[in-house]
Amino acid sequence: MDIILLPYAFIIGICFGSFGNLMAYRLHNNISIVKPRSSCISCGITLNFPELIPVFGWFIIRGKCKKCKIPVPFHYPLIECICGLLFTIVTYKVGLSWELPFYIAITFTLLIIALTDIKSFDVPDQLVIVGLTAGLVFFLLNPLHWVYLIYGLIIC
Ligand SMILES: [Zn+2]
Hints:
single chain, mainly alpha, about 65% helix, elongated
């Protein structure tokens, strides 16, 4: 494992964490995850460059909307850091291989499922379908899994 990759994994992870915050909020409120752009949930002002920087954006605005001054919960940068750490750990454990994107996808999906479950006690079907699909594709692409499957069928 090349240690030099880990900071990149963390940076990619906090960016995904930022998108994960958006996904958890919008899926719960039945809003498209593509449009509109990120905005304050109170006054609707569109967020721009400094506020959109994962983790640092929250500190730049000092945890408050720049227009209406409503507090922005601390869990947003916290989730971004947690996602960054998870991506770093997964990259460290799996290494740079063809399996890494699947582990990252499954980790990210499980994080979003946990966020929506904590916020609303609901798990959107779209996330379950994405997680199952990623898991199934990962299973089918790994030849070792086929060996285990055939071996399991033979000994039954
Ligand atoms: Zn606002």
